[in-house]
Amino acid sequence: MKLDTNNHSVFKLNYHLIMVVKYRRKVIDDTISTRLNTIFEDIGEKYHITVTEWNHDIDHVHVLLTAKPNTELSKFINAYKSASSRKIKNEFPEIREKLWKEYFWSQSYCLLTVGGAPLEVLKQYIETQGQKGV
User: What's the rounded mean pLDDT across residues 110-130?
Assistant: First the structure.
């Protein structure tokens, strides 16, 4: 596994982010998903976030992303939701028929850490630290 670095640390921070359209409206097609991804990548640069994988269903998106230890993920997600909501509704006015208020995204989201060793392996490794011959 290739690790990322900065001045004082070595890290690999992978996250799985799931964002849902407000009221679970079925408005995401390939074109809108591509535009949402582009907006995500543009805003992500400012927060040192990189998209590893992006995919969508008709009412939500899945993003596999990497970040740095000082990345404020909640601020990034809020900035992304706000900007993408505004841009998508301006660029695809037909969405306003299904989402009549200013919001595109549901307020909630799911953010999971992913990658590395399974938790049980890590627990066992930490438990055995300092034990000779193990």
Answer: 89
